[in-house]
Design a protein that fits this description.
This protein folds into three domains: about 220 residues, no CATH class; about 140 residues; about 80 residues, no CATH class. Helices cover about 75% and strands about 0% of the residues. By secondary structure, the protein is mainly alpha-helical. It has 20 helices and no strands.
Length: about 500
């Protein structure tokens, strides 16, 4: 913000830019304190939009970084649509990270050419922006207290103006009830005991915006940290033996999986002594981790061996392609195991998230294979980030809690037991699915579900009455619309 921090601007422009950033930070802090209270809703999206506009207006980032801002706002918009704490938490954390990346690429770097080390270096470079942001925030106070004479002038001005303003406010307030109510409204809204909390929120939000603006304004010297890894050092026999060994192990494992699942329940019972559902559950996470680690094995062979030309490249492509294909088969087996387990025991969040993890891992492995085939790997971190965002968007569009409620209730028709405790743990997202199928449920299950819905309705009503429009959420609004006409017992 100062000329020392950004040598490309003059002293006057530096002062104007500093004042603009501080002004926007104050407004942003006040709006965050006003809008973000209670359950996440419309206020969070408005605050994120204000931060994005402020960053564009004050820092003028390059067009390449705007994609991160747009993706962050897209995820923030789902906070207004979904009510699931898990989903909302993932959306918020990812959106904050995307805003940070917008600042990291605002002045330098090409995301499509930035390797993993460049991304890591930009993450570390944020630490240098914090002291600079603190300096910008403290500069007005330093100027105010630079000389005793200026301090005395400021104090005398306050001593003269405040008593006069207070006297006239009291006099005119006693003459007009409407004017008196207008004067007293701010003091009624903010209690004196809550002032420290409001001050902390405003300061923290304003400081976060200043830090983001500083990071977006000042180019960072990444030096060697942004350079690609040179690698080398592995002989052909070493990386070939590594890939062949892993390929053989994966091939044997895939063969066992095919025999087990084609053999069916009788084969599993005879060979393992486990039920089919227990067999489906066992080893799932180990399979997912093993498939994920194959990416590291391929990367190590590529970086260490540098098989870029001639027969070495051909051998590498064959072995790496075979390993990716076998890994995808392992992931398919893990996916099928999870489906079988959910068929037996029902759907929950901890069982649904791995589905997304499997699909994301498969997509990343495919991208890694493409990178090896074309001989360019620098774009992989950005591709991984994009796939992660698409996965999260897909989860939001799926509406996981409604999906869980629908599938678990549908299982009852096939003779399975309904886990009413799992239904009670779901948020307002699941209410439409529950109320649509509620009349068809076994009467013995209805009392517990009715009590749970009654408690949820009471909680949603309290939220609407207490927090107002800033916490508006589509899922909670639709849930109340469905629950209000129902005759339910007291919670």
């Amino acid at each position: 913000m100062t000329q020392e921090m950004d040598p490309g601007i003059g002293p006057e422009e530096a002062r104007v830019r500093t004042a603009t950033v501080l002004g926007w930070a104050i407004v942003f802090g006040l709006m965050v304190d006003l809008w973000i209270e209670g359950p996440p809703g419309l206020g969070i999206l408005l605050a994120a939009t204000l931060a994005a506009l402020g960053l564009i207006f004050t820092a003028r980032p390059r067009a390449r970084s705007l994609a991160f801002l747009a993706a962050g706002l897209l995820l923030m918009s789902f906070v207004v649509i979904r009510d699931s704490p898990v989903l909302v938490g993932l959306d918020l954390l990812t959106a904050v990270g995307l805003f940070a990346l917008a600042g990291a690429f605002a002045r330098e770097g090409d995301p499509l050419r930035a390797g993993l080390r460049a991304y890591a270096a930009r993450a570390v470079a944020w630490t240098a922006s914090i002291p600079a942001a603190a300096s910008v925030m403290l500069r007005p106070f330093a100027g105010l207290l630079r000389g005793r004479r200026r301090t005395r002038v400021f104090a005398r001005a306050l001593l003269i103006a405040l008593p006069a303003g207070l006297a006239f406010a009291l006099l005119l307030g006693s003459a007009d009830a409407v004017f008196a109510e207008l004067l007293g409204a701010p003091f009624e809204q903010v209690r004196l005991g809550e002032l420290p909390r409001h001050a902390i929120v405003v300061a923290a939000a304003g400081g976060a915006f200043v830090t983001l603006a500083v990071r977006s304004t000042v180019p960072t010297r990444l030096a060697w940290a942004a350079k690609p890894i040179e690698g080398g050092g592995l002989r052909p026999s070493e990386w070939v033996s590594l890939l062949v060994t892993v390929d053989v192990i994966f091939a044997l494992f895939v063969g066992v999986q095919l025999v087990a699942f084609f053999g069916g329940r009788s084969h599993v019972l005879a060979e393992t002594g486990l039920t089919f559902a227990e067999y489906a559950r066992s080893g799932f996470w180990q399979m997912l981790v093993a498939a994920t680690l194959t990416g590291l094995v391929i990367a190590a062979a590529w970086i260490g061996g540098r098989p870029t030309v001639g027969p070495r490249r051909t051998w590498f492509l064959v072995l790496a392609s075979l390993l990716v294909c076998l890994s995808l088969m392992v992931l398919a087996s893990a996916f099928q195991r999870l489906v079988l387990y959910e068929t037996g025991f029902g759907y929950t969040w901890p069982r649904l998230i791995p589905h997304a993890a499997i699909l994301l891992t498969a997509a990343l492995l495919a991208c890694g294979l493409v990178a090896v085939l074309v001989g360019r790997t620098a774009w992989l971190p950005t591709a991984a980030l994009g796939l992660g965002i698409l996965t999260l968007v897909g989860l939001n569009l799926l509406d996981p809690e409604a999906f869980i409620a629908e599938r678990n209730i549908a299982r009852v028709e096939h003779g399975y037991e309904l886990d009413t405790g799992e239904l009670a743990s779901l948020s307002a997202d699941a209410v439409p699915a529950i109320t649509e199928t509620f009349p068809d449920l076994d009467p013995s299950l209805r009392p517990q579900i009715e009590r749970d819905l009654s408690c949820l309705r009471a909680e949603l009503r309290r939220g609407v009455d207490r927090f107002g429009w800033a916490s508006f959420n589509v899922a909670r609004d639709m849930a109340l619309e469905r629950l209000n006409p129902l005759v339910l017992p007291r919670c």
